[in-house]
Amino acid sequence: MTKRILTRRQIIKDATKAGIGSALLLNPGINLFGSDVTKTRVILIRDEKAVDTDGNPDPQTIQKMLDNAVQKLTGGADIKESWKKIIRREDIVGIKSNEWGYLPTPSALENWIKKRVIEAGVDANNISINDRGVLSDPVFQKSTALINIRPMRTHAWSGVGSLLKNYIMFTDSPSSWHPDSCADLAKLFELPMVKGKTRLNILVMLTPLFHGVGPHHFNKKYVWPYMGLIVSLDPVAADSVGLQIIQAKRKEFFGEDKPLNPPAKHIYLADTRHHLGTADLKKIDLIRIGYKEGILI
User: Fold this and answer.
1) Residues 4, 186: Cα–Cα separation, whole Å
2) I need a surface site. Which of 11, 116, 156, 257 has the fewest CB within 10 A?
3) CA 62 – CA 66 distance, rounded (Å)
């Protein structure tokens, strides 16, 4: 398969067609791709105060991390302007969270996102935070914009549960996406309730799960305080960065390369087979902000 070489014109054309971050790309004062416009910008922000000794998030630190990441991503003069580059006043916004009991999306982060969306001009009645009930949620049914947010963890069927897999609840048959190690999760972004609506992706790396065996596995032994967030317009690029960190942690913990089983090949295939985004780290403009110790990438 021949891979396209994207020019700036093609990037803007594709982004406009997809409706993902097009307002940002069309603003001549903002370059989301760093000095090289063929690169996808990903923000990795960490703060050693993000979680306490029990792994509980600190709301004020989370707010600062979110604001700094979004402002760096968009190039806005302040946080309100930054969110207005992502969300329009007239939008109906679904915040696709994740409620897995052992490692849910922190409510503090959900609440700060909702607050920032309201400050961007969206009526509170046109915002919903949901996971397993998105198909029957009136806001999600009418949504014009989605914010994709969930914690990173290893997963028995897809290698890792991350941003690409977070949209599996937009189908009435999630298990039908499990064959071949969930290879084609990128197709979820073509579903009618999803297509062209994703404005922002936040992969929660506060206390990721880096190892487990079997469905619904969880063991506190394999959770560690990474204290980070990964933020991008591109879910594939964000997942690719998160995957590298998980793999590096596994090597550090086990003292040798310990490949995921099954491999998280859906991230690579989201790029090479489905052309949803960028998985190649060489084509990602990774901006590291904050705490550097133990960054692993």
Assistant:
1) 18
2) 257
3) 6
Dist. CA 39–CA 271, nearest whole Å: 13
The vertex-25 CA angle with 21 and 31, nearest 5°, equals 120
Tokens of 86: 């992502």
Q: How many Å apart are CA 214 and CA 218, to the nearest integer?
A: 9
Nearest to 106 by CA among 165, 147, 58, 69: 58
Q: Which residue has the tokens 């290879």?
A: 183
Cβ neighbourhood burial of 158 (10 Å; 0-12, 13-18, 19+): buried
Q: What is the mean pLDDT of each run of 10 residues along the chain (297 residues)?
A: 38 41 34 54 98 94 98 96 97 97 95 98 98 97 98 91 96 81 90 97 98 87 97 98 98 95 94 96 97 97
């990964």: which residue's tokens? 230
Cβ contact 77:71 at 8 Å: no
What residue spans define the domains of the chain?
A: 8-290
State the pTM of this model. Answer: 0.88
User: Rounded CA gap, 6 and 162, in Å?
Assistant: 26
